[in-house]
Write a structure and sequence with these properties.
The complex is a heterodimer of chains A (about 140) and B (about 130). Chain A is an alpha/beta fold. Chain A has a five-stranded parallel sheet with strand order 4-3-2-1-5, with helices on both faces. In chain A, helix 1 runs parallel beside helix 3. The radius of gyration of chain B is 15 Å and the shape is globular. Classes of the chains: A alpha/beta (about 140), B alpha/beta (about 130). The interface between A and B is medium-sized, with 18 and 19 residues.
Chain lengths: ~140, ~130
């Protein structure tokens, strides 16, 4: 039987290492054969924002291509691809009101809009839920 | 399934959101059929103080219509049947044990937290 796990993220992109840690845990869960639900709340709804763009870095002395600046939307795309390759489900739900507040409706493919009711439902269907609130 | 929301971070984004984001989330999920308790810890114990009110923000010609009313928001949760707890030592450290606290508040000594946690199959820390 496939075990589903739910994760709630809150931090905005480029702000906190908790986000990277959670992404690594999500990757490990997918690799271990679990279905994963993500509820992105508040600033975390900008993680899959499609208009995130890489840039050059003069301090590092690298152009944009060489710098290959990390973008959370690319990480999510990669995790979605990993889930598909493993035959697992990664259901990423963005809190719709939080999206509207921030004007980040243009999300990458594979991300859907939802409400706290979706979070509650996903948690009920999961073996466990891990929350990472903004501090 | 009963879930205990453990809230420590307080007064974060309360001006922009006109509420506390986790108290709001708890209201929303309770409305969706969830069953919750709320444990206030650290600075969040201040949310149990009744009668507090932030003034509406004014920036130039822009004036906020509705400032956050955190005491009322927590009281509204209690009125919906959500048990609200606060850690006694955190209230004491902040000189709040004699303040006008939420009537329905349960004050829990830190040593009794294991028993409180036992009442909830799920605990979410924010």
């Amino acid at each position: 039987m496939t075990i589903a796990l739910t994760f709630a993220l809150m931090d905005a992109p480029f702000e906190n290492s908790r986000t990277v840690t959670m992404f690594r845990v999500i990757e490990a869960a997918l690799e271990a054969g679990h279905d994963v639900n993500v509820f992105a709340y508040e600033g975390a709804v900008a993680l899959p924002f499609a208009k995130q763009a890489p840039h050059a870095n003069a301090v590092h002395g690298r152009d944009a291509a060489t710098e290959n600046h990390p973008l959370p939307r690319a990480w999510i795309e990669s995790l979605l691809a990993l889930a598909a390759a493993r035959g697992r489900r990664l259901d990423w739900v963005n809190c719709g009101l939080c999206v509207d507040e921030r004007g980040v409706a243009e999300a990458i493919a594979g991300v859907r809009r939802g409400t706290p009711a979706d979070f509650w439902k996903m948690s009920l269907e999961s073996r466990n839920t891990l929350t990472a609130g903004t501090r | 399934m009963k879930t205990l929301q453990v809230l420590e971070t307080a007064y974060r984004a309360t001006v922009e959101e006109q509420d506390d984001t986790i108290v709001w989330l708890t209201h929303a999920m309770q409305g969706a059929g969830g069953e919750f308790g709320l444990l206030l810890t650290g600075n969040a114990v201040c949310y149990a103080v009744q009668g507090q009110r932030a003034p509406a923000l004014k920036l130039g010609a822009w004036t906020q219509s509705h400032a956050a009313d955190l005491g009322a928001d927590v009281a509204a949760l209690a009125a919906k049947g959500v048990p609200v707890h606060a850690i006694e030592e955190d209230l004491e450290e902040r000189g709040l044990l004699d303040a006008r606290l939420l009537e329905a508040l349960t004050i829990v000594p830190r040593a009794r937290l294991p028993q409180l946690f036992d009442e909830y199959p799920r605990i979410w820390k924010w």
